[in-house]
Write a structure and sequence with these properties.
single chain, about 350 residues, alpha/beta, seven-stranded mixed β-sheet, four-stranded antiparallel β-sheet, 13 helices, about 15% strand, globular, binds pyridoxal-5'-phosphate
Length: about 350
């Protein structure tokens, strides 16, 4: 029996033998006490790639996001964020519990927060409504099927936020994908942001890790918030070495995942039981068109056939391409989905 083709997420990748070797050989120290040299190197490299002054290594994207939000906001205020952002749905109300802010969701037709929509969500100061203290953006937008926010849209959002005196936190868990899709360096997608989170454990294939990048003046506070959240790690160089390896070896190939996603969508467009949405990056949303099919009934059938996907609503599946699936796997997955559902 061949292993299933796992398209549930780009987080399912396993570290390659070469990545494991880099981890095993990492030079390490106590990063909470007096520093870990490999972690420092990763942080410098990430800051450089993002065009930011500094970066800190975190165990997860969620913790890095929560730190970015804590830096940008004040308790008792509002965070403006696209209504289907990861921060809204998948961080367990962390911004309320940890930063003491409430989310003001901004509804968009397609997940792309634009300057006009953001401007429309701003309210004049009043003693009767909460004040806003920050804006959060997400690029690419997970729930919108890996949708890209182009540099010009980011710049316009930053200008609106700046005009209102609001710092911008960027959830760039998949900023690498956005940059590859646009054919620009990642640093083109960060100008004007107060903080940016990037994941190493998604498209880049690391077992663990994210970074938060920010201006130099924020370093002390970022360190403090991370420590308070339990994110101070000791010989973290073992994990950071995976990040350095991934930035060198896996970042340059991330566009292959986009080509595979496109191939999957093209192949599935011929299947009468589904309607795939055209992917911009590595996420393919697949709508079930037959009245009797639901994600709940279809997913176990697909798993039995050898393809793993996740539900995204009652009539929608999500398939994500990544480092550990080849073009042949995608071909096979498309055939298996087609034969199972028709
Ligand atoms: C857009 C986005 N932000 C943040 C996260 C959180 O990252 P982590 O799972 O490392 O906490 C994810 C994870 O899927 C994500 O997709």
């Amino acid at each position: 029996m061949t292993a299933p083709i796992d398209l549930r997420s780009d987080t399912v990748t396993r570290p390659s033998p070469a990545m494991r070797r880099a981890m095993a050989e990492a030079e390490v120290g106590d990063d909470v006490l007096d520093g870990d040299p490999t972690t420092r190197r990763l942080e410098r490299r990430v800051a450089e790639l993002l065009g930011m002054d500094e970066a800190l290594f975190f165990p997860s994207g969620t913790q890095a996001n929560q730190t970015g939000i804590a830096l940008a906001t004040r308790p008792g205020t509002e965070l403006l964020v696209e209504a289907n952002a990861h921060l809204v749905h998948y961080e367990l109300a962390g911004v309320a519990a940890l930063a003491g802010v409430q989310i003001r969701p901004v509804t968009t037709p397609d997940g792309l927060l634009t300057a006009d929509l953001l401007r429309g969500a701003l309210r004049p100061p009043s003693p009767h409504v909460p004040r806003a203290s920050a804006v959060a953006l997400e690029n690419t937008h997970n729930a919108a099927g890996g949708k890209v926010m182009p540099a010009a849209v980011l710049a316009a959002n930053v200008a609106v936020a700046e005009g209102a005196g609001l710092p911008v936190h960027l959830d760039g868990a998949r900023l690498w994908n956005a940059a590859a899709a646009l054919g620009v360096p990642p640093a083109r997608l960060t100008p004007g942001v107060a903080s940016v989170m990037v994941s190493l454990s998604k498209g880049l294939g690391c077992p663990v890790g994210s970074c938060l990048a920010f201006p130099r003046a924020q370093r002390e506070r970022a360190w403090e918030v991370r420590k308070r959240l339990g994110g101070g790690m000791r010989q973290s160089g073992i994990l950071a070495a995976a990040g350095l390896y991934a930035l060198e070896h896996n970042l340059p190939r991330i566009a292959d995942d986009h080509a595979n996603a496109k191939l999957l969508a093209e192949r599935l467009a011929k299947c009468p039981a589904v309607r795939p949405l055209a992917p911009e990056t590595n996420i393919v949303m697949i709508d079930l068109v037959r009245p009797g099919d639901t994600a709940e009934t279809v997913i176990p059938r697909l798993a039995a056939a050898g393809v793993l996907v996740v539900p995204f609503g009652t009539k929608r599946l999500r398939a994500v391409t990544h480092l550990d699936v080849t073009r042949d796997d995608i071909d096979r997955a498309a055939s298996l989905i087609t034969t199972t559902l028709t």
